[in-house]
Amino acid sequence: DSVQDECPVHRLRWWASMCDDASSQLFPYSRDVFVAAMYDVTVKALGHESIDSRIFKGHSLRRSGAQILFHHGVNLEHIVEMGRWASTRSLSIAYLRDGAYKTGRQAELTRIMFDPSRFQK
To answer: Keywords for this entry (predicted)?
Structure first.
């Protein structure tokens, strides 16, 4: 993995290249569909079918995303900019402290989320 893979601009270019038609919607999913899909991916990655979906919110992605980037060696200033935090201090205090980061689980979640077969036409 490289910083280029984690860069939202590069990921967006990749995503756009997967579209059939230049006039199609860039993000064709509603918030509800996206959250439901994230729940399904999380359940699959964790291997627990009985997880209460109410514990997963959009904010869970913000914290997990910050932790994944941090643990992959992305510079704190870059994480702050991508996540629009006020400072590296606010990021560290609120999002990187006491992280329940599990490398194996996060790696599996990432593999599932970015599996090319999910984007096949």
So the answer is: DNA recombination
Q: Where in the chain are the domains?
A: 3-119
For 22, the token pair is 């230049």
pLDDT in tens, 23-45: 777 777 787 887 778 777 777 77
Angle at 11 between CA 8 and CA 13, to 5 degrees: 110
Find the DSSP H helices in 24-86.
Answer: 31-46, 58-71, 76-83
Residues 6+ apart with CB under 8 A from 44: 112
Burial of 79 (0-12, 13-18, 19+ CB in 10 A): buried
Q: Which amino acid is at 104?
A: G
pLDDT tens, residue by residue, 74-88: 899 999 998 889 999
